[in-house]
Amino acid sequence: MKFLVTGAAGFIGFHTAMRLCQAGHQVVGVDNLNDYYSVDLKLARLERLHATPGFSFQKLDIADREAMQALFREQHFERVIHLAAQAGVRYSLDNPHVYADSNLTGFVNVLEGCRQNHVGHLVYASSSSVYGMNAKVPFAIEDAVDNPISLYAATKRANELMAHTYAHLYRLPTTGLRFFTVYGPWGRPDMAPFKFTKAILEGQPIDIYNGGDMSRDFTYIDDVVEGIVRIQDCPPPYADEPEQAREGATDRLFNIGLGSPVRLLDFVGCIESATGVQAIKHMKPMQPGDVPQTWADVSALAQRTGFRPTTPLQEGVARFVDWYRAFYGV
Q: What pLDDT digit, counting tens, does each position of 71-103 carry?
């Protein structure tokens, strides 16, 4: 099968493209290689992908409508896994236009490419951030998500609504995946697992927000990729009647998380154990756009695919630290 994977030089995109190629599929990866974080890390991921049979790459910005139209017209994709986006909750506070370009304009270009070229299934990345300040836990896909507290979250919720509209109007099968704090080897330098590990190994202090009174549903990358691969093989059915379309027969949403939130200080403890180094902690107040907890209800994912994430945090953190030491020669 022929796949488009957007954001192929990114953390989740890299692992997903690798997994699909290893399964014998043909993968075209696109990425604009922006400098939101280390381009060298993105290039190192691509180097690994280029050595994998079945992979090809085009440097391309998904916000470029003409380039995206040409890509879809020339490549004849059977499936699309859309993982490209401007990431980061805090970055959106200072750089809103970048989010509009990538997460909104870019997503319209992906939807249009799928619609006009009869792609069999679009799987796209949403985020646990859409749940905002929901007090009910665990977060379930049936919960109301009408109160995002960051622009990033708002763009991800907008993606879900846009996908639903295309599913309803054009019977385009779409599946959105709400990821919960993904970590693991080749992870993003702007996320806590990477930042904390780097600082701890360098003897630098780490910032602990809200006095440590926060918890996250940390999800190991291999579990996330397993969920993506299984979901892409389960497209929603076409709706023959408008009423069915309104009920979501051609678009679906799933959480992908471990389903077991961990306190931030306990997470730091796992890194301390894996590195053998005690962290220097600076306690700070909650930052704008942050939420005190995330917790995924993954029952819908398990029911649809027979899979739920299982990698324990200590095991996943140890693998990440091992990769970090090897990659950076620490």
A: 999 999 999 999 999 987 778 778 899 999 999
Separation CA 87–CA 293 (nearest Å):
19
Per-residue burial over 245-258, b if 16 or more Cβ lie within 10 Å, else e, is: beeebbbbbbbbbb
Confidence of residue 241 (pLDDT cuts 50, 70, 90): very low
Verify whether residue 91 is a known catalytic residue.
no
Residue with the two structure tokens 């029952």? 299
Catalytic residue among 124, 152, 220, 324: 152
Measured distance CA(13)–CA(4) in Å, rounded:
10
Across the chain, mean pLDDT equals 93
Please report, to the nearest 10 degrees, the dihedral formed by the alpha carbons of residues 227, 47, 275, 187 taken in order: -40
Token digits of residue 74: 């020339």
> In this structure, are residues 90 and 134 in contact, taking their beta carbons and an 8 Å threshold?
no
C-alpha separations of 263 from 6, 39, 216, 220, 298 in Å = 32, 31, 7, 16, 19
- Reported residue count of the chain is 330
Q: By three-state DSSP, how is residue 28 classified?
A: strand
